[in-house]
Design a protein that fits this description.
Layout: E1 17-20, E2 28-32, E3 39-53, E4 56-75, E5 78-91, E6 97-110, E7 115-116, E8 126-127, E9 137-138, E10 142-151, E11 158-172, E12 177-189, E13 202-214, E14 219-233, E15 240-256, H1 260-274, E16 279-284, E17 287-293, H2 306-322, E18 328-333, H3 340-362, E19 367-371, H4 384-390, E20 392-398
Parallel strand pairs: 6-19, 18-19
Antiparallel strand pairs: 1-2, 2-9, 3-4, 3-15, 4-5, 5-6, 6-7, 8-10, 10-11, 11-12, 12-13, 13-14, 14-15, 16-17, 17-20, 18-20
């Protein structure tokens, strides 16, 4: 049976601008998509997921999907965006999210919500939601528009061409909020063509939700969603099923793009504040990177030494003061001594240790970790000094 537990969640990008013609008695509104140039929008989807095989509950886990869209160009018809899509998971007994997967994309969003995604790009895998009419929309009005769901879990990509139904429920004049409901029904049979054996023969499901929109900022405040998906397999003769049941809460936040000059300035400020041998600060497209080269842990250990806690305490003070709402990712890295499995496990445990401490001290849940093993050296592993630099923990402040 094909196991596709992972990489199944939908990345729904939900934002549009609403222009209200009458502030007191709104009869109709125009819906359109607008992301200011050089502004980055962060969408956070928190999902509780039940995973079933052949009708039996096999796993309950949490998943967080974070989408960052940076508008880098605009014209009269829409905007071009660069997107990063990150998948985080944790089991019931886990304390910190683990960063599992990351994807990057570059696509165009028309002002009515239709995406133009180059061929061969997987993300976003939920496309054209929402799409808006060309005319004004009245409260209570219902409309339909095409939507695509893309699966990249099989030997070949699978794109479902579906319809979404929308309803403008009401507008709150006092809070300047609009409430929009949407629903996608999935009922697809994949038998008519010579599909690969690992693809399902039938797909059933529904994706439904309601979004609260801020009419002053022209951005969504939050949404609640429910997503059920049933996959039936049987191309080799034996029928089997996989099912997902998800409840998803979504929030968003807008960030101004941080120029490289500003990143360099902040980099120097952090270096000055930490003042510690074995600690360096760098920046790249992900944000600010604080690198601890082999000073947090004793050899072959993943428990922090005493000196390390003092350094982390200083960093926590900096994050609380300057980056209180930013996402924090902790990466563990090793040299090439030992087996791949040993290095991977050690890097994960070290990263998890640091992430757990940061989450406790920062008091929020936007902290995650991942182990990289020996896969990303920054120096020559053939020398003792190089291996020491490669044994490191990197704390990334996403910007």
């Amino acid at each position: 049976m094909k196991n596709i537990m992972y990489n199944i969640a939908l990345y729904g990008i939900l934002i549009f601008a609403v222009h209200v013609f009458s502030p007191s008695a709104v009869l109709a509104i125009t819906l359109s998509w607008d992301i200011p140039q050089n502004e980055k929008l962060e969408f956070v989807y928190d999902a509780n997921i039940e995973y079933y095989e052949n009708g039996m509950l096999r796993k309950i886990y949490g998943e967080r999907n974070i989408i960052d869209l940076l508008c880098y160009d605009k014209d009269t018809k829409g905007q071009a965006v660069k997107g990063s899509f990150s998948v985080y998971r944790k089991n019931i007994n886990d304390y910190v999210y683990r960063l599992e997967e990351q994807y990057f994309s570059d696509f165009y969003i028309n002002s009515n919500g239709v995406y133009v995604v180059p061929e061969g790009i997987f993300m976003p895998n939920l496309r054209h939601l929402p799409t808006f009419p060309e005319t004004d929309v009245h409260v209570g009005e219902v409309w339909k528009a095409p939507v695509n769901i893309v699966f990249n879990n099989f030997s070949v990509p699978l794109i479902l061409l579906l319809d979404a139904q929308y309803t403008l429920l009401f507008i709150n004049d006092q809070t300047k909020e609009a409430f929009i409901q949407y629903s996608i029904l999935i009922d697809k049979t994949l038998k008519d063509k010579p599909y690969p054996e690992d693809l399902p023969i039938k797909i059933y499901g529904q994706y439904a939700g309601q979004v609260t929109w801020d009419l002053q900022k022209n951005q969504p405040k939050k949404s609640i969603n429910a997503y059920n998906l049933l996959l039936i397999f049987g191309r080799t003769g034996e029928l089997s099923t996989i099912e997902f049941k998800m409840s998803i809460d979504q929030t968003n936040k807008a960030y101004l793009h941080v120029p490289e000059e500003e990143k360099k300035k902040q980099q120097k400020e952090i270096e000055k504040a930490l003042k510690q041998d074995g600690v360096s600060v760098d920046s790249d497209a992900r944000g600010m990177i604080i690198r601890f080269s082999d000073i947090l842990f004793d050899f072959d250990k993943y428990n922090l030494n005493a000196d390390a806690r003092k350094v982390l305490d200083k960093l926590v003070e900096i994050i609380k003061a300057k980056y209180p709402n930013n996402e924090i990712i902790v990466e563990g890295h090793t040299d090439n001594i030992g087996t791949d499995e040993y290095n991977q496990n050690l890097s994960e445990k070290r990263a998890q240790t640091v992430a757990t401490i940061l989450k406790n001290k920062l008091g929020h849940d936007k902290v995650s970790y991942r182990g990289m093993g020996k896969s990303r050296p920054i120096d020559d592993n053939s020398t003792a000094a190089g291996r020491q630099r490669n044994r490191r923990v990197e704390i990334i402040i996403k910007m």
